[in-house]
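note to self — DONT lose this again. spent like an hour looking for the file last time. sequence + predicted structure for the chain T wanted, 225 res
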Amino acid sequence: MTVIILLAIVGMILQGVFITVEHKQKYLAADILKGCAALMFVSIGCICYQQVSHNSLGLKIFIGLIFGMIGDILLNLRFVLKQNGQKAFLAGILAFLIGHILYLTALIPLTDNLILDIAIGAVLAAALLTYIFKTMEVKMAFKIFGVFYLGAVIIMTVMAINIALVTAGTHDIIYAIGAVLFTASDIVLIFNTFSGTTKFSLRITNLSLYYIGQLLIAGSLFVLR
């Protein structure tokens, strides 16, 4: 437990330094710091996974965290590889999508309301995407990726919340809170990226919510038995 707490503290410090360095437009150094911060929640996931009795569920979440780290690095590469920035951004979204699909497959066996969860998630995602596409200028490639990505993220979050409400298990509650923070960070990222006005305060909010969300998802494995 002590090691997990130390890794989380180091990760949050690295994430804070990364935000500062990125704001100074030192993008290569920032991406390295972001990768190091992501390595901390992957390390937490790895340590916790060793203690998990539900190996299939734990393995999927752990691999999902690895794809989250890959997505972290790729998303920020858009600032380093300016000529291929869009490709790096889309590759990052794809990595996160794979991670969320893994999270989804881990949750599906735990829910008793799969169809309802999917239906609620799909409706919420459709409503959000409709608003985004009507109010913001989004390129077609981002629209295509956005439909699948947001759909997976929101359905996963709805499923996590419903499981937590039914079981009231510590693991499920921690995971659900992490999923909600992750989804909130994505929504903030979308509005800050495509609304036409980028605000540093929203960037801080996006990155903070995201990182705490990933820490909680990784840490939830510690109490999974």
